[in-house]
Structures are given as C-alpha cells and as structure tokens.
Amino acid sequence: MKTFIHMINKQNLKLYIRIVLIFLLIVSTNSVHGQQLDQLWTGIRQPQPQSELPKGKAPFQKAERIAKQRLKTELIPTQQGEWIITQGWEMTDGATVVESGTSIFDPQLNTNKWFNATVPGTVLTTLVNQGVYPDPYFGLNNMNIPDSLSRTDWWYRCKFNVHQHIGERQLRLLLNGINYRAEVYLNSKRLGSIKGAFIRGEFDITHIINKNSENILAIHIFPPNNPGIPHEQSMIAGQGLNGGVLSTDGPTFISSIGWDWIPGIRDRNTGIWQDVRIKASGDVLIGDPLVTTDVLLPDTTQAKITIQTSVKNVSSKSVSGKLVAKIENISISLPYTLAANEEKILTFTPENYTELNIKNPRLWWPNGYGNPELYNLSLDAQVNETTSDVKNIRFGIREMSYELMVSENNQNKRVLYTPNSTVNKGKPVFNYEKRAFFTKDNQLATIADAADVSGLETLSNDDPIGPFLAIRVNGVRIFCRGGNWGMDDGMKRVSRERLEPYIKLHRDANFNIIRNWTGESTEEDFYALCDENGMLVWNDFWITTDDTVEPSDFNLFVKNATDVVRRFRNHPSIAIWCPRNEGFAPKGMSEMLTAMMAKEDPTRHYHGQSRFLNMGTSGPWGYFKDPSLYYTQNAKGFNTEMGSYAIPTANTIRKFIAPEDQWPINDVWAYHDLHHTTQNFGDFMNAVNRYGTPDSMEDFVRKSQFITYDAWRNMLEAWNSKMWNNTTGLVLWMSHPAWPSMIWQTYTYDYETPGSYFGAKKACEPLHIQMNLPDNDIMIINTTLRDYKSLTASMKYIDLQGKVLYKKDLKLDSKANAVTKCFIPEKVNNLPKLYLARLELKDYKGKVLSINDYWMTDGNADSYKEMNTLPVVDVNIKDGIIVTSGVRKMKVPEGIRISVEVTNPSKVLVAALKLNAVDKSTKAIILPAYFSDGYINLLPGEKRNIELILPQNRYNTYSIVAEGYNVRN
User: Fold this and answer.
1) What whole-number distance in Å separates Cα of residue 317 and Cα of residue 54?
2) Do 572 and 374 contact (CB within 8 A), yes or no?
3) Is the pLDDT of residue 206 over 70?
4) Residue 261: closest CA among 525, 515, 504, 621
5) Cβ neighbours of residue 653 under 8 Å, at least 6 residues apart?
6) Rounded to whole angstroms, how far apart are CA atoms 872 and 838?
7) Residue 132 — pLDDT band, cuts 50, 70, 90?
8) What is the pLDDT of residue 880?
9) What pTM, to 2 d.p., does this model score?
10) Which of 102, 638, 724, 904 could form an SS bridge with 938, CB 3.0 to 4.6 Å?
C-alpha cells in the first residue's frame, strides 16, 4: 500500500499544504477545548506592533549557506547488539519533498537542496549549522529568524546498510526522543507514530529491513499543534508575561514559546532531538528494569538490592532460558519459560539471592556529604546459553527518605516517609486532591484511602522546621542548596560534552541539588552527570503555573510521564518527582499521575506541588535594596525559586552583543533579559551607581559584580542562618542559563563565572563562617558529617590601607550538620566611610578553613565611592602544577590541577580580584576553567593560593591573568 507522500504529485502541492494547515488548525482548536481561555493565560493573540519590537544599532549578522555534502551514514556501536545511526541524516521541509515529484524512498531522489541534518538536534540547530540562519544567541539575530519554522512540517531521511553479522536476529528501531509528533517509515513501510517530546518510539523492523542492501529511513516530523506567538522583549515592551498556548501541548518544551529568561525559539525545538538506534536481539527482550536499594538504617554497613524487570518473548514459539545479572563480582541467574508472545516479570530478591545482601556498600551521597559511588549492573537474557538481549544499568546504593507534615483525621502530624519501608508498594500513600491548610500559603497532603502507612514514622511536631519538607539520604538530613535549570539549552544542544562542564560548575559551587524545571532537561546525559557529581534532582513534569492553560490530552501526558519514569528511575540522583511548576496537577490528571508514580517508582517521593505544599512560597526574583529582608522575611522552609540579577563579565558580553550595542543599556540588553521594568531594576541600578555612574559597558560590569556577588551570597546565607531551625533548602532561580542572559544565573552560557557564581559558591562552603543581617552576628555553618574541634572564629575591621581597626576572636567547636553561633561584634566608633569586615575560621593549627569578606559603610550610599580612591595595582601571580611527594605532576579526571599564588605587593587593598586562564598565543580566555575562588580581596602584602583545574590538553599552553576593581588587567 502506497503512503500518502507517494501519492502526491507536483500538481497537488497546494492541496497538500492546505491539508496540513487545516489539520494543524483543527488539532489546535480541539486541543484547548474545555479550558476556560478567558480565565487562563494563553499568551499574546497577535504579534506586537513594530514600535515595540527590539532594535539595535548593529545589523543582523549574515549567515553563509554551507554546501550540501554527501555523507555516508554510520552505525556506531554503543553496546552489544545496539548501534546509533549517525552522520548521514538529511532534512528538508514538507513542501520541498512534495515539489520533488519523486518518492522519498527512491534511492535516486535528488536531495541536493536538502540540508545535512544534525541528529540528534532540532530543526533550528540544523539550519544554523548549515548556514541558513546566523547564531540566534547573538544580539538580535533571533528576531530575523522566521517564526514560521514552528508551523512547518519536516522530513528527515537517511540511507544505511546493516552489518552482515546481524544475521537472523530480531531487529528494532528505537527513537529516543522527537518533538512533537512523528510518522516513521522504513523502505516505504509505515512503522508507526510517536507523539510527545519525552516518550521513546520503538518499532519492529525485522521483516522490513534489507539485510543485504541499502535501507531508506524517513521520519516525518510535525511541530507542536499550538506554537503560539512569542513576546519580544524590548525597552518599550518590557519583560512581558510567560509562556502561553504552547502549554496545551505538554508534553513538550513549553518554555520555547518564550519566557522571561529565554526568547521564543523559532522552531519550538521541533526535530529529532535525541538519537536514533538500531537494536538486534534474539526472541527474548528485556524491559525497563527497576533496581531498588535498601540501606538497613541506622546501620550503613549493610544494604539489600532487589532487581526487577520484564522479559518478553516476541516469537510465535515457546522459549526457555535464564536471566543473568552481574554486579561487579556478583553473578546470579533466574530461569524462565515464556509461551509465544508472553511477557513476565522476573525478580531477584536478597531473600532468594544472598549475594544481594551487600556488606560495607559504597554508598551514593549528595555533593559535600560523601562520594557519589556508583555500581554497574548487567542483565543478560539468554536462550540456549546464547545472549538474546542485554541491558546495562548504572545505579547507586542509597536510601531516600523525606520529612514532611501531613494531615490525618484532621490532625497535623510530622512524619518521616521512607518509601522502601512500605510493605505493600504500588498504591499512593498521599492524597493531593484532598488537602488541609497549615497556613494560607502552605498546605498539607492527607493520607490516601486504603494507604499502606508502614513507611511512615511519626516525628515530633515540636521540631522547629515544622511543616516543611526535608530530604534525607542514607538517614542524614541534606541541607539542599542548588539551582533551577529552566532548560539545558534553548536549542536543545545537549551532548554530554556540552552539559558536563555545567554540572561540574554546580559541584564546584558546593551545590547539591538541581531542579529540572517543568522537565525540560529530561535526557540520559543530564541524569548521568548528576549521578556522577552528587547532584540531587527535583524533577518536574511539563506543566507551568496554575494561571496558564494546561495540557489538553491527559492520556498523552501521563503516557509520556510513565515512559520517563521507567526510563530514568534507576538514577540515584533523582530525589523528587513533581507534577508541575507552582501548582497542583489538573483535576483528572492528578489521580492518574499519583497512581502511575506509586506503581512505576515505589522508591521515591512524588510531591504534589513545587510551592504551597510543605514548602515556603517561591520567589521573590528581583534585587533586594535591603538585603536584611532575606533573613527576616524570606528565609523559611524549602524554597524552589529565588533569584536576582546576574550580570555577565565583559568578556562574555562581547561574545553576544556587537560593539555598537554594548553601551548604553538598550533593546539588545532588554532582549537578553535585563528586566528594566520589573525585578526592582531601579534599586539594582541605584546600588551600581553607589560606586559612581558607569560610563561604559566595562565600567558597568565591573561595578555590578559587587552587587551580584553580595545578592546571591545573601540569599543563601539567609537560609544558612536558620538551617534546621526553620529552613531546609533553597533552590536558586536560576543556577543555569538556557542562552546569553543578564539575570537569573550563577555562571553564564559560555561557562564563565561572574560575581553571582562566586558569591553563591562562597555561601555554600561545606564549613563556612558568615555574618548575618541585620545584627551582624557571626555564625559557623557546618554542612559536613564531621565534628570540628578547637576552631577559632575571628572578625576584623580593616581600612582601605590595610590597617586593622577592630578584632575579635573566639575558640569553639562546630558540630556536624549544624549551626554554631559565635558572637555579635561590639559597636565601634569613628570607623571610616568604607571598610572591610573580614571573617576567618581557623583550625587548631592555624590553617584557614573559611574566609569571608563584607564591605561595610557608615550608612551613607555615597561612601561606596571611596572605592574609587584606590590606586590601580599590579598583582604578582605565580602558578604551577600541584605536586605531591614523588609525583612530578598530579592529574585529576577533569584535567590538570594548578596552584596559583597571587600576591598584593601594594600598600592598599585590592578589591574584587578575579583570575582568568588565557591561551598563551591568542590571549583568549579559556573556558571552562574551574577556579576555587574569585572576586576576592587582598590586604596589603597578602598572598592567597587559588586552585584551578584546566583540561589536560592545556598543559603548558595557558597563562594566568588577573582583573579586578583596582587591578590592572
């Protein structure tokens, strides 16, 4: 039977286009049926007038079309019986296919006008890589890319030959992720369809594939049904509202319509965004395993492992065999017999297999609490002693438990919920449809009907953290500090190589949690990197706030969510599943999700809300003129969103704004999220202007780093100050940018680390000394599992010439995972207009364990201008590879570790000094570069050692340079 695309000839092109457009219109209309659009936000209904659109002095960059190449498709092996289809992909729009007048499966089809496609990748990624459009991240280039890309259907095509040794194996085609809908064809045969950005598509191709000749794979991709209209930020239009009608198409990348941290992505991330594979097997296939680890708390020297998976016979005859499981030196097997087309669940339990009772397990810990140890499991389904199918799973041994308050029989009680302790798993424990109010902005779940509560342990209601959620790992309370990922990358360029430095920057900032906001960073490499670096993951699904339209197809949504849970549930990093951002799941969907989660992942907590449920409220997101309010009004509970401005370095800004538009602040800055109409921008600029009105981009950036360093440190230190006395976690909004931005980020898109990064990193030191507002009381925050004895906490007031004006010391101990109050400094008279308060924490040998500086004034805003009286200083820099006894140079997995000694030879303070590594030849800044500290202050004559990690290939090719407020660059 001929496919639709075969039957269309050139004369029917207009009819074809009309059919596609009518189809999209009908689906779009039906998709919002039943929702009250007059009450819920759907986005703007028509494009903004020209007068509101952003304009720059610099012209749009021009792209140069890259000539089409004839690339041979390669099948790259990933494991036994599995290959990734790569390199030979081609792509074009649907109309071009029709206009060719030739079947897409004709080997002689002329594809010279097609594009070499980037797979995995989106349509826009291909078009940028092929020189059709310039980099949308630069300046206003995105404004010159047509939004019609999101209303166009696309064809992907590749030709390939399979390996001869595949023989008579069962063959399947696996698509790991497309957006939004796909029709899949092989050799003129329709295999089936996929719908939703987060579900796998797997198709039997055993009797369709040509094993001895060329194959043609064609995938017809359709964009989301309701792409909406992006709001374009400008100085006139302002920030605008978030999202819109695209949310009805969830499961998809709902932020790609445009948000207050990313512009509208012109293709809405349509495309084959994850890889495509061929799998070869025998007659028995292994499903999605579930590996459960149970640490026998409070004893952490013993653990139990349970392995469960389905096995399916895809043949028409009965088969017998065994499932072999291997974990390091453990090898066990379980026999099975399967009737024709039968599927069974097989389970290895520690009761039946004593090898799964692990003594002295290497536990997986969040960053800062221990090593994130991982194990490898191999499952081998054998028939007649021959491998039929293989699954390799990496997992961690750890026990998740959760403190929270619930309502039972109209009584509030605090409980410890340990999913593994639930005897009869598979049914919901909590009811999120029936809730009780603890306060007007904090609700409590009730116990579900007929719930097995054996996993609940009653705690004291007198605990000062009260109703708030606290996460435990291996029995230890984890003080959660980290950040939101709105999206990994605006164009979904999400290779491991691209993502890994971002996760490492989180680790080096002493973070231990990432929130996968509305699930837009749901992919294997993200979770794997979080596993490796000790990042807990709070994982949302694909719905935004409850004032915006909701998904129209609940079954589709839950089907995608189910596949995500099955696919990623063995990652030890995932700590929380959550239905949406800032709202409960819609009525009707909520029950479906709750039941699905209890069945598919009985090892974790499914939390019904990201705020207003055992949480503090989310936000605020703007600059605080009075930072003491963080401490007195905002620091409470577990907050999943709080942020401020985060101005990049001048080096970074030059990468995405043309010289003509770098100063003064203009539409290009507004387009890149400098929200000048919201987020207390006036107060932020007043804070910058305290150092004098900036006269250039470089001057603005230099002064802004003081403000952003303090803002991000203040947020986290406010939460530190009440650790376990009211606060349990703070997830910054955001730690990670999806594109070049001026707000809500710790590092920037290019891996650079401005003041916001080092301010957050300082506050999250595992052993940390800090000064709290408004009383300036000194406190030690110890988030490690170690008690520290005989510490010395000290405070000094120092003038700009380095003279000590006040000093106070105190000897004390610091208990593990606790706050230790030190002292409140006495009031000192006759202090200068501007001076430095330096805090130091030393061990009994005098080694500095923590150093923390605060700039102080006499209360007059103009006093900050005293900073401008400091003369420019040339600092001295020495660097060398760290050496250990008998070892010439020490290498670490990330690269080479370098010790840098920086000295202030002058008689005045050096303020806000930052080191950079540059290429010796080009002088370009090397990124990523992992410095242990930045934006430091050096007293006259002071030396400081800073560690740096660079890639291995940078050995002997780098130089270290300095920049700072009064440092000669």
Assistant:
1) 66
2) yes
3) yes
4) 621
5) 662, 697, 701
6) 22
7) very high
8) 84
9) 0.95
10) 904
Q: In 499-655, where do the E strands start and end?
A: 513-516, 536-540, 574-578, 605-606, 637-639
Residue 500 has φ and ψ, to the nearest 5°, of -55, -45
Residue pointed to by tokens 């919002």: 32
**Under 8 Å between Cβ of 801 and 907:** yes
Note the pLDDT tens digit of each residue in 670-695: 999 999 999 999 999 999 999 999 99
Q: What are phi and psi of 481, to 5 degrees?
A: -140, 125
CB 97 within 8 A of CB 155: yes
Looking at residue 659, the DSSP 8-state letter turns out to be: G
d(CA 608, CA 615): 11
Pairing outcome for strands 456-458 and 411-417: antiparallel
Nearest partner of 572 among 599, 607, 539, 598, judged by Cα: 539
481 within 8 A of 511, measured Cβ to Cβ = yes
Residue 450, judged by CB atoms within 10 A of its CB (0-12, 13-18, 19+), counts as exposed
**Three-state secondary structure readout of 162-185:** CCHHHCCCEEEEEECCCECEEEEE
Rounded to an integer, what distance in angstroms lies between the CA atom of residue 958 and that of residue 969? 16
List the beta bridge partners of residue 302: 359
Task: Round to whole Å and give the CA distance between 207 and 317.
Answer: 17
Q: What is the DSSP letter of 686?
A: H
For the beta carbon of residue 15, count every other beta carbon within 10 angstroms: 11
User: What is the signed CA dihedral for 634, 636, 637, 643, rounded to 10 degrees?
Assistant: 30
Mapped onto helix, strand or coil, the DSSP state of residue 788 is: strand
Interhelix angle 554-568/589-600, rounded to 10 degrees, is 20
* Host H or E run for residue 717: helix 697-720
Cβ–Cβ < 8 Å for 897, 890: yes
Which token pair is 618? Answer: 């989310």
356 strand-pairing partners: none
Which residues have CB under 8 Å from 26's CB, separation 6+?
none
For 61, counting Cβ atoms within 10 Å of its Cβ (0-12 exposed, 13-18 middle, 19+ buried), the class is: middle
Q: What is the pLDDT of residues 891-938, one digit of tens each?
A: 455 789 999 999 999 999 999 999 999 999 999 999 999 999 999 999
What string of DSSP letters covers 409-441?
TTEEEEEEE-GGG-SS-SS-SEEEEEEEEEETT
Strand partners, 579: none
Q: What are phi and psi of 594, to 5 degrees?
A: -60, -45
Token pair belonging to 176: 């790991």
How confident is the model at residue 895, as a pLDDT? 86
Contact call for residues 839 and 771 (beta carbons, < 8 A): yes
Contact assessment for residue 437 and residue 328, using Cβ atoms and an 8 Å cutoff = no
Given CA atoms 136, 138, 143, 145 in this order, what sign does their dihedral have? negative
Measure the CA–CA gap between 405 and 417, rounded to whole angstroms. Answer: 10
Walk across the sheet containing 536-540 and list its strands. Answer: 605-606, 574-578, 536-540, 513-516, 480-485, 727-736, 637-639
Q: How many CB atoms lie within 10 A of CB 113?
A: 10
Q: Residue 893 corresponds to which amino acid?
A: P
Q: Which residues contact 237 (CB under 8 A, 6 or more apart)?
A: 48, 52, 53, 54, 231, 670
Q: Which residue type, as a one-letter code, is found at position 50? A: Q
Please give the radius of gyration of the chain, using alpha carbons only, rounded to the nearest integer: 29
Beta strands per DSSP E along 676-749: 727-736
Q: How do residues 831-846 score in pLDDT, each as one tens digit?
A: 999 999 999 999 999 9
What is the spatial distance between Cα 716 and Cα 733, in angstroms, rounded to a whole number? 12
Query: Rounded distance, CA 696 to CA 686, Å?
Result: 16
Q: Which two tokens stand for residue 327?
A: 């974990």
Q: Which of 390, 402, 491 is nearest to 739 (CA)?
A: 491
- Cβ atoms of 176 and 200 within 8 Å: the answer is yes
